[in-house]
Specification:
With 234 residues, the protein is mainly α. It is 60% helix and 0% strand. The protein contains eleven helices and no strands.
Length: 234
């Protein structure tokens, strides 16, 4: 009986593994390729929200916003954790797992690259989808421009000198780059915000001009607008 069970189990395991291999060999139908992107209003909305999502992830991952902000400035007193005490003492090179994770700026460059990709690719959607207007495009590009500038501001706040990348790497490569002087990066971020506010509205979506099919109340407090971008400059 034991031999029979073992043989049956082995046969089922082989069948399961073979099924997995067959599944992995099939190209997924639900994943859109690059050639299928940037054709509709839904594509631009998805890409725009993706930049916002990456920004939130960069700040929320390992409580980066709090650790590199209030804690590092000394607004909190640490009683137990030595890794948090190292942050409070500005000793960010100590060998703690938390510091290694927080010090990885890759997630911020994911925001920057996604924003650059959007700015370069979204304009083609206007020509392919009439529901995606020039005004909609201006709002969207202004937002991702502001998000990219905000990412640079935050990185300079944490690391000082950082590589300044002003265009996308959408071909699977991202070469090593030297750091740029912090003041140069901040000047670039400020100039980008000043450019963005020219096209940012106080409110998205009106009775006569919906924004992605929604009224202003539904976007309130969720997107970069003229007021929030101006606050960053001040």
């Amino acid at each position: 009986m034991k031999k029979l069970r073992l043989a049956l189990f082995s046969a089922l395991a082989c069948l399961f593994l073979q099924s997995c291999n067959d599944f992995l060999d099939v190209d997924p139908k639900h994943a859109a390729s690059e050639t299928q992107q940037w054709k509709t209003l839904e594509d631009t909305r998805s890409a725009l929200m993706g930049v916002y999502g990456l920004t939130r992830a960069a700040l929320a991952d390992n409580n980066t916003h709090w650790i590199c902000g209030d804690l590092r400035k000394g607004d909190f007193t640490v009683y137990k954790r030595s890794d948090l005490q190292a942050v409070s003492d500005n000793e960010l090179n100590k060998p703690y797992d938390l510091l290694k994770k927080v010090s990885n700026w890759r997630r911020f460059y994911a925001v920057i690259n996604a924003a650059s990709v959007f700015m370069e690719k979204a304009p083609r959607t206007v020509e392919l989808d009439r529901s995606y207007s020039e005004q909609n495009l201006k709002y969207d590009i202004a937002q991702v421009r502001a998000l990219r500038a905000f990412a640079y501001f935050y990185m300079v706040r944490i690391w000082g000198d950082v590589p300044l990348v002003t265009y996308s790497y959408d071909n699977g490569t991202f070469p090593s780059m030297p750091r740029t002087d912090a003041q140069t990066v901040l000047s670039y971020a400020k100039a980008e915000l000043l450019t963005a506010i020219k096209d940012l509205p106080y409110q998205y979506g009106t009775q006569t001009n919906l924004y992605y099919g929604s009224y202003g109340a539904q976007w309130q407090g969720k997107l970069f607008n003229l007021k929030s971008a101006t606050t960053r400059i001040i």
